[in-house]
Amino acid sequence: MLNYVVLFKNPLHFRNFSGLQTQKFETLNSQIKAKYPAFEQKRPQRKDRKRAVGAGHPFVLPLTDRLLMLLIYYHMYPSSTLLGYLFCVSQTGVLKNIRKLEPLVSEVLPLPKLEHDKVRRLQTVDEIEAMFPGFKAFLDATEQEIPRPQSKRKRRTHYSGKRKKHTVKTQLTVNKQGLIIHKTSHVKGSMHDYTLYKHSHPRLPEQVRLDLDLGYLGIKDDFPKLNCTLPFKRKNPGRGKIGVKAEELSDEQKAFNKALATERVVVEHTNSRVKKYRVFGDEFRNRLKHYDMMTNIVCGLVNFRVSGKLPI
Questions:
Q1: Alpha-carbon distance 301 to 143, whole Å?
Q2: Could you tell me which of 42, 180, 25 has the C-alpha nearest to residue 108?
Q3: CA–CA distance from 240 to each of 179, 243, 249 (Å)?
Q4: Do 162 and 254 fall within a single domain?
Q5: What is the pLDDT of residues 176-202, one digit of tens each?
Q6: Measured distance CA(111)–CA(304) in Å, rounded
Q7: Are residues 258 and 287 in the same domain?
Q8: Distance CA 258, CA 240 (A)
Q9: Domain assignment of residue 51, yes or no
Q10: Which pLDDT score, from 0 to 100, does residue 297 have?
């Protein structure tokens, strides 16, 4: 049987399974335990509950093992059958434990929404610089594959011409340290990155420069007050001009593009970190109604690893 006591004996295996070092897991676990009594007392009081409070089967696993099982599920994304076999619980018991613990984990972790609320409360220049070192932020969109939808309409709307698969798309905004300060809700994979930005984007202080890629061409025309930087693009000679090549960029423009790409690598590294949690990187097998909750928790775990602290 797999449990916290067994896995804690090997710190390397503990990190490979859960995605967290033992010290960080202890910090997270202590916060969960502190808030669990009030959370568990409030949870059965929901209006749609049909059974009397106290009815139903109690949880088989202790709270620490339930948290460990949730982290393993997010990091390795095994089947519920395999995870149930490892923890000696039923297949339905796996998702029961995970689903009922997710809201509490969301309260404890530094989710992007919490970080964005901090950004909106910034007042002084020193506070802005502390949140945005170098007064820079970086934004990019990422896609995740989903199973082929049964509905013909959804097959069309969720098909990504770039990935040649059915996907959903999410947009992340990070600071220079890789802290995720904003995350959008998921949208259909056929939506363009810039269209997603028009629907939902972070509110940043005017002193902060937002570095973008060529997927956001036209943003300076639509958002003239936005402090942003785009790479240079070769000008298209126009349709019908066969054999006419686009004008080459100058050496200064190429050097600028290279420097901008070097700075923007931080958001690419952040995309890589969230994809290490295979629930965000592999084909998403759960229902899409759980997608935003689960990916928010992944971003909170990444922020916890980057900042090393939890919100009080």
A1: 19
A2: 25
A3: 46, 9, 22
A4: yes
A5: 999 999 999 999 999 999 999 999 999
A6: 9
A7: yes
A8: 31
A9: no
A10: 97
Residue from 150, 113, 140, 170 nearest 261 by CA: 140
Whether residue 55 has pLDDT greater than 80:
no
Beta-strand ranges (E) seen in the chain are 136-145, 159-160, 165-175, 180-183, 187-188, 209-211, 228-229
- Mean pLDDT computed over 140-149: 94
DSSP state, residue 234: P
87: containing domain: 4-46+56-108
Number of residues written out for the chain: 312
Please provide the average confidence, as pLDDT, over all residues in the chain.
91
**Amino acid type, 18:** S
Same domain, 86 and 153: no
Question: Positive or negative, the Cα torsion across 199, 302, 281, 7?
Answer: negative
Are residues 116 and 102 part of one domain? Answer: no
pLDDT value at position 240?
57
C-alpha distances out from residue 82 to 48, 69, 112, 147, 161, Å: 31, 11, 31, 21, 34
Amino acid at 48: D
* Same-domain pairing of 116 and 96: no
By the 8 A CB rule, do 97 and 71 touch? no
The two three-digit tokens of residue 29, written as one number: 């676990």
